[in-house]
Amino acid sequence: MSEETIPLRKDIPASDKWDLTALYVDDRDCKADFDEIPALTERVLAFKGHLSDSPEKLLEALKAREAADRTTVRITDYVHLLKNAGDDVPEWLENGWSAIHQYYATVSFFDPELCAMADDTIQSWIQDKAFDDYRVYIQKLLHNKLHIQSEKEESFHIRDYNRQMDKLKDEVDKVLGSIHVDGKDIPLTNRTFGDFMKNPDRAVRKEAASRFFAAFIPHADTIVNIYAGLVKENISHARERRYKSSLEAALYKDNVPVSVYTNLIATVSANLAPLHKYYSFYKRVLALDELHRYDINMPLVPEPESKTSYEEAVEIVRSALAPLGREYTDLLCGGLLGGWCDRYENKGKRTDDYECFCYDGLPFIHLNYKESDPFAVYKMAHEGGHAMHNWYSVRNNPFMSYCHATFEAEVASTFNEELLFQYLMKNAKDDTMKQYLLSQRVVIICGCLYRITMSAEFELAAFKAGEAGYPLSTDALRTLYRGILEKYNGPEMVLEEGYELERLTGRDFYTPFGGYNGYQYATGITAALALAKKVTEGGLEERDAYINFLKSGGSHYPLENLRIAGVDMETNEPFLAACDRFKSLVDQLDTLL
User: Fold this and answer.
1) Which residues pair with 181 in a beta bridge?
2) CB-neighbour burial class of residue 313 (10 A; exposed 0-12, middle 13-18, buried 19+)
3) What is the distance between the alpha carbons of residues 434 and 166, in angstroms, rounded to a whole number?
4) Contacts of 480 (CB under 8 A, 6+ apart)
5) How many CB atoms lie within 10 A of CB 136?
6) φ, ψ dihedrals at 86, nearest 5°
7) CA distances in angstroms from 231 to 158, 168, 469, 564, listed in the order given
């Protein structure tokens, strides 16, 4: 779709938009809640210093906190959904974030004061049925008690390293220039680089990669300084809060042992042969004397020329997810056709796809659906998995404990992708379509399992070096990362100079409170593959166990929730099975090619 044909937001039919009236009837309805924020803030503040007065007082305080939190979250969700879709946001709200920020700053006393209570006192109080809606929230808070600091210290925020890196990328974009492709000069930027890597003309890919990676070299010290700053600040944050390591600090909140992280790295890095075999396909299929990184993002199998309407895609999703039962598919497909989804591109709309995890309203799905995109139905199934996780979590848990952990977030979405892949393979019309489906599935698992684990291995090594007091110099970090890149990419891959620097600018490294977050995409797809196998090869018991996992929300820690579904992430079994699944797909692709 060209810029000229992208419609304005006002020209999109209401039937193709999400139904935000499930949150607020209109902006005035939202403003009524917004105007209540100061009063809600004062109600919570009135309990400062009194949480331990009596169980009745604590219960009143929790109800006040819940009402205020729920209101601010609802407003925030509404505004973000408006902005991301390209709708106008009223000026009073655009300029009114200070009230919400002030609320969270004011109530920062709450958790430290609650944790300061005697354990036996609070544990006896919350056994009362009146605390049913708050018991899980309090128990999880007490789990973190040792590491929660004072009100002032808990308001501390780590700097936005992503913003620093984005500014550096803007500087790189200024010197990259354009590349002549099919009679046109197309700008080379951090945003367009991925498109160049998919170009079938190897000369175009080579020029783009050579120029792109080289552009980061003059900024090597700045890139490393930004990353080293993040590492040092997070190490300091972990030590101040009495964690044994920065890794424990990142995993402790969700009660995930560090062994899960290290086990992922150990198992995947010991099973790199299928990955190296996959990369060697490119050398063989493209008849190359030398394999470069810029060769392996070009699709091995050309995209099929076909069109699938939005409504047709919904029915494909319905059929593919049939193993989950009629209730699941009717709810999801009814939502996709009836107010959950903002379907198509319009000017001003955010370009990526996501699902908004709302407690109030609906599971809002944001797509930019294109009929000619053969991967569009995967995106629908993926975000639909998030939506159904949201739907079940909200309807089976109170507000203070409905939200599942990030560790679990990618399980439901990638589970749906696996069922969709199996369905499409079973119904593929010929070997060419099977080749395409296999090649795309391998790309997804390669990225989520191997590429993410590669980054996780680097992060662990870099943080350990910082914790041991080694200088995080430019040469040291470049050498460290390049060694890991060479291990994962294999002996046949030629890595351009500067590639390790470009990888260091990735957004997955610069999430708030430090690294160690990206690994959850690897554990997510690992759990999803294991559970999809159980459901498709099992019966009602396996299906119901998976649905119960979706319903569990934040009622347990993530590893417990996944055990409900039937997978134990504290063993290496799921990781080995994921590597075996990847190997099986690579072998199938090898046979068909």
Assistant:
1) 184
2) buried
3) 39
4) 458, 461, 462, 465
5) 20
6) 95, 15
7) 11, 18, 12, 35
Q: Of all residues in the chain, what percent are helix, strand and coil, respectively (each to 5)?
A: 65, 5, 30
pLDDT digits (tens, 9 = 90+) for 378-404: 999 999 999 999 999 999 999 999 999
d(CA 332, CA 325): 11
Could you give the CA distance from residue 337 to residue 163 in angstroms, rounded to a whole number? 37
What token pair was written down for 320? 């593919």
Residue pLDDT, tens place only, 136-166: 999 999 998 887 765 454 444 456 788 899 9
- Residue 555, CB-side half-sphere exposure with 13 Å CA sphere: 18
Q: Which residue has the tokens 């119960």?
A: 548
Report how far apart the first and last C-alpha atoms of the chain are (Å, whole number).
Answer: 32
Give the separation between CA 175 and CA 216, rounded to whole angstroms: 10
Residue 227's closest CA among 483, 593, 511?
A: 511
Give every strand in the sheet of 364-366, ordered side by side.
341-342, 364-366, 354-356
Retrieve residue 183's tokens. 């009679």
Encoding tokens for residue 317?
Answer: 């999703």
Query: Please, are residues 365 and 85 in contact by the beta-carbon 8 Å criterion?
Result: no
Whole-model pTM over 0.90: yes
| Cα 205 to Cα 195: distance, rounded to the nearest angstrom | 9
**Among candidates 29, 216, 51, 60, which has minimal Cα distance to 130?**
60
